[in-house]
Design a protein that fits this description.
Elements lengths: L1 H19 L6 E4 L2 E3 L1 H10 L6 H4 L10 E3 L44 H37 L5 E3 H23 L5 H18 L7 E3 L2 H13 L3 H8 L8 H27 L3 H8 L4 H38 L10 H6 L9 H28 L1
Helix pairs in contact: 1-4, 4-7, 4-9, 4-11, 4-13, 5-6, 7-9, 8-9, 9-11, 11-13
Length: 382
């Protein structure tokens, strides 16, 4: 129960962080009119609501409100408090308007509130972790399922199809790389990617002709897994990120997924190898049920009990990789505020202990909780 409460708190901070730490007030009355700035922001950007000129200047702290209800932390992560520049400790004398405006976790070197950035870190860590592991899960389940179900001698394919699909895979990897590099903003590349997928589907479903051969799918997938696992995850990221022009969070998510799918694939492969020879699977094959339906309806549901354990550990690994990149200042867009980027400043200012303690504590608690979750899942499965 305590673990559930912790994750609910983390999820709450990730989703509602902007309503907790923001220089924009929740409600204000200005020149006789009432406004809800936090709620109205998206509508202002769309042009549906018009704000006074003072609001557009975004000097929210200096606006003479008639009435105002501020957020719990009256600073955004990007807000620069010019009265408290130069690494103010949580216990130092701070130049603020009152007790409520104090920087409770101190400030960084340019006067940004550490608490506001700390809260923003939950959204970034959970967002990158969830999306990357979701993609890694899809890839890992697909690749592990292929290797475990077909092995090295169960996937028969005509020789001509095998050669054509080999060249198709090379082209598919190329167009995927182009799509990732352009963030999916180049329409012509997306069109070519769709065309390439249609070509692959057409070749696969062409009638069988000539001599057939068995593709050693298990050997191929295992070789790819071994090649990726042979390189330390951080070194792998550092090697791939320079190949991308102007890397964004989207690229970071894809690259983390590219690294983390192998552990999921290993477990899925082992479960498929165990289940595929059971009597009810053999009975389904004798009845002529298609391989896809056998895998989807009969094998995968029974394999997922163990796979969830790997998801918990992989999630922790993805969050840790994101913190590494933020700490090194690599791969993240300029100005991105994360726990890693906060800790980065300690390298230049070792005395700024609060920039290491608070983000480090958040990382430790999340990783520790995911570890405990994985152990609980293991005990249930066993």
């Amino acid at each position: 129960m305590k673990l559930k409460i912790f994750f609910l708190i983390v999820l709450f901070l990730a989703i509602f962080g902007d309503w907790i730490a923001n220089e924009k007030p929740v409600y204000c009355q200005y020149e006789g009119k009432s406004y809800f700035p936090l709620f109205e922001v998206p509508f202002v950007k769309l042009g549906w609501i018009d704000w006074p000129a003072d609001f557009k200047n975004e000097n929210w702290g200096n606006i003479p409100y008639e009435k105002v209800v501020k957020t719990l932390v009256p600073y955004s992560p990007e807000t620069i408090d010019r009265k408290n520049l130069g690494l103010k400790s949580p216990f130092a004398v701070q130049n603020t308007n009152g007790f409520r405006d104090r920087h409770w976790m101190g400030t960084d070197r340019i006067g940004r509130d550490v608490l506001a950035g700390w809260i923003r870190g939950f959204r970034l860590a959970l967002g990158i972790g969830f999306l990357s592991i979701f993609i890694a899960g899809l890839v890992g389940i697909f690749m592990g399922g292929l290797a475990g179900f077909y092995g090295n001698d169960r996937f028969d394919i005509p020789v001509y199809k095998a050669f054509v699909l080999l060249f198709w895979n090379i082209g598919f990897v190329y167009w995927m790389y182009q799509g990732i590099e352009t963030n999916g903003n180049n329409l012509s590349i997306l069109i070519w990617l769709v065309i390439w997928l249609l070509i692959g589907a057409l070749v696969y479903f062409l009638p069988a002709m000539g001599k057939s051969t068995s593709l050693p799918i298990d050997w191929i997938v295992s070789l790819i897994i071994q090649a990726i696992d042979a390189i330390p995850a951080l070194f792998f990221l550092l090697a791939l990120l320079p190949l991308i022009k102007n890397p964004t969070l989207f690229h970071v998510i894809i690259l983390i997924a590219l690294i983390r799918w192998t552990g999921i694939a290993r477990l899925v492969r082992a479960e498929f190898l165990r289940i595929r020879d059971l009597e009810y699977i053999q009975a389904a094959q004798l009845l002529g049920i298609r391989d896809f339906l056998i895998c989807w309806k009969h094998i995968l549901p029974n394999a997922m009990g163990s796979v969830w354990i790997t998801f918990a550990y992989s999630f922790a690994g993805a969050i840790l990789l994101e913190a590494y990149l933020g700490y090194l200042g690599i791969g993240m867009p300029a100005g991105t505020i994360s726990w890693g980027s906060q800790m980065q400043q300690v390298r230049e200012n070792p005395s700024a202990w609060w920039l290491a303690v608070f983000p480090g504590l958040a990382i430790f608690l999340i990783l520790f909780s995911l570890q405990k979750m994985g152990e609980k899942l293991e005990s249930k499965v066993s």
